Amino acid sequence: MMNYDIVIVGGGPAGMAAACAAYDNGTENILIVERDNALGGILRQCIHNGFGLHRFGEELTGPEYAARYAKMVAERGIDYIVDTMVLSLEKGEEGTVVTVMNSERGVFCINAKAVILAMGCRERPRGALSIPGTRPAGVYTAGTAQRYVNIKGKMPGKNVVILGSGDIGLIMARRMTLEGAKVHVVCEIMPYSGGLNRNIVQCLNDFDIPLKLSTTVAKIHGGERVTGVTIAKVDSNMRVIPEESEYIECDTLLLSCGLLPENELTSAAGIALDPITGGAVVNENRETEMEGVFACGNVLHVHDLVDYVSEESAVAGKSASEYIKNGAKKAALMGTVKIEKGNGVRYTVPQKIDVTGANEEVKVYFRVGKIYEGVNLKVSMNGEQVSSAKKRKMAPGEMEFVKIKKSVLDAAPNGTLKIEIVE
Amino acid sequence: MEKIEMICINCPLGCMLTVERDAEGGFKVSGNTCPRGEKYAVNELTHPVRTLTTTVAIGNREGKYLAVKTAKPISKAKLFEAMALVNATKAQAPVKIGDVIIENMLGEADLVAASDAE
Amino acid sequence: MKYDVAIIGGGVVGALTARELMKYKLRVCVLEAKDDVALGASRANSGIVHGGFDPVPGTLKAKLNVEGTRIMKTLVRELDVHYRQNGSMVLAFCEEEVEHLKKLYERGIANGVPELYLISGEEAKKREPALSESVAGALVCDSAGIICPYDLTVAAMGNAMDNGADLFCDFPVTAIEENGGIYTVKSGEKAIEATYVINSAGVGADTVAAMVGDKYTITPKKGEYLLLDRSEGGLVSYTIFQVPGAFGKGILVSPTADGNLLVGPTSELTEKGDVTITLAGLDKIKAIAARSTEKINYRKVIKSFAGLRSSCADSEDFIIEFSKNAPRFIELVGIESPGLSSAPAIAVYVAEMLRADGLAMEANESFNPTRTSCRHFGTLSMEGKNEMIKADPAFGHLICRCETVTEGEILAAIRQNPPARSLDAVKRRTRAGMGRCQGGFCTTFITELLAKEQGIDETEVTKFGGSSYMLCGKTK
Question: Is there a contact between C257 and C151 (Cβ–Cβ < 8 Å)?
């Protein structure tokens, strides 16, 4: 059986960043397992720019960002195998047994002292949306269309309606337009866009593509190929208002309705998931509830920017390395701080903080459930206020964080930390 | 005095900018959180530019495409003209990131490879 | 080529009938209007192998259901089709409904249904903890099961073809002529000849019957469904029905043979070809299913779909008879529920009708009743998988992550009988694209494989035949 200190599942930005961080922390015996034919993950098809401003201080395209990390992996001589799928994780006698499959060697097992899950996320499909109407060809998720256009050089259609204003949808509106398609409209069921403002400007406004808020696709038409869609306004309960609908002739409907962490492997291994994030429940080290198994990047929760994925993955990589260095023994646990989601907070990552006395300052990331303006962000421990900060604007599309000082944790190692929006 | 509001597209922050144009044609920008925002606002009103990212077919690799970008932003008005040129061009593998595919495209900027192709 | 028997319609009945006839030295063909088999009622139905307590005693439905369900158990082994004998439970919510259960029980006994018994509401809730508090009693039938209807149809057709039957797809029958004891069945310019013709055209059976002067009226009833992620498949273990009553009949909650959870169907009269999904339909499903259990997590819906029942206005029972106007022409009309359960028995019944009519039916000693599914790889042990990967490395290349489908399995689906020629055909055979991402990742890979294997351009690949093209051209 192959033996590695750390096996990393997924060679996208999260997996590569975790590998480099673990290596730089002194754990060199690492294997990255990638299911595609090269490292890079979904970034390989994200040919637009806007990546790396935080991480590298310059604006890169997706493939360039991925190439930077692939180079870092290569420079460190970190092992990786491509075209290989991880099938399962099981607790072994020492560490975790990772069962993988590829064409060359078939199905085989790798023993790992620690595992880092970095499988990324997938798009919410049409089925999950249950759009009324027929089931013709011509309905794609934005990411599938992106792969067709950017990697395979194929056009999925010429007359396009996009449902969902997530960033991939906006990016694809521009991309399809540049390649000669007519994008009629982008519909967003929420009263606000799920994408970045800059993308609304440079992907929609630049090309006079209307963005209709509080609007959804009420019906899909067409027997064999899409022939049109009925779009309609929705009320505050997101029910279609039939009187406010219009028919748009088109041959393609792209869906950009959110991303879901890809956690088949995680849940099959019996690792607890957070129902809101769709990712594993983790502590501040990004360690899941299965000892020695860590998670980072979009498989843990969907991030706004790849730069933040890299940052989080470095935490997981370093933590996995520390875990191995300490002989798989945790530093003396003083207690576990529970993080409570107060008013307006949809989820937090981590969901808990293990207090060992060795913690440094902990960054707790969170998302709010709706748009807030002119509010206070209050953090309290066991009911006592720790901090309060004025916030000009908070939106569900933008991940926020609070820093929790070591002194706060050490003073209440079994406390309940509450993060809330005070309106 | 003319007052124009716009969203900065330099980075994902998307700052809300306010530009005031005085009688002499000068600009006063507010709302930006970095100097690039000021430059963007003035540019946007005088000569808007965008980075073009797209793909180019690889002539000697059937069915393979190379990610490319303009080395610096080009005139927004020339995006479609640039696309026509890019689509009529074929790259030749092997290519490394940064290799120039079209030199000084439309007199605006080099078109460079943004991915490797073996 | 002149055939002894031409079967119009590649649904589960047509496919199983073709297979049954291959047990004899006969030349048989199946004529299918669409690009693949199992695209009518056999594509979208509940996939329930009913015990047989519902049909009125003495009817064809009663007889063929009980017999079909019995044969099914052997059939699924021979054809390597996923089948689970999970049992069914009909729920009653008040005393009046409990009385109705007793009637269903008596009917079942009269029909000869095995493993049928009544239990109390408490016992039902003990067996199925997700059931709603108000359950007052249940009729359990342990001989009922669940199956994937198109999996069975594809396997039956494939096995029939392996034994020499021909399948003509994209062959919508437009005219039928009889001349000197030979039928010419036409589809536009195309034509085949046959001595006997069997009309098994499902929803289109009345149109086909009219071509030989037989008059029936099919009144299609649409059924809408919600399919949930496999994570929800364990909510119930039995197929849960409700006593037919004021709340409509037949909204069931059931695991599927592949481990998903299925909720539905509605039942609305509609027109042919209407398989649209409606908001009203989906709302109705949720409202009625809530009587059985309130624990369905609709956030886990991965697909909504609709199918048509080929109900016939002329008869409550199946119509299986020789044409009154055309010799050697068998009409199978109104094969609605329990059509899937009855299909194996209908096939035998039809074979007997042919024999009785004088068709020479000499046993075919070389008939091979078994077929290996393209999904066989997934059921193997690690050693078994490694052997297959060694022989063909494509089995080590995973394409669909959600359902763990390899390139080898997809290639097998494209190469084995009946060959998959479209994305949906690959999906029905392998489940690639059937999982929670619904093809988000694997679609582009499968279009490539379909193009390569068929020697066509990717832009010619369709979702389900006709002009359901996936792509419109190249970017450059």
Answer: yes
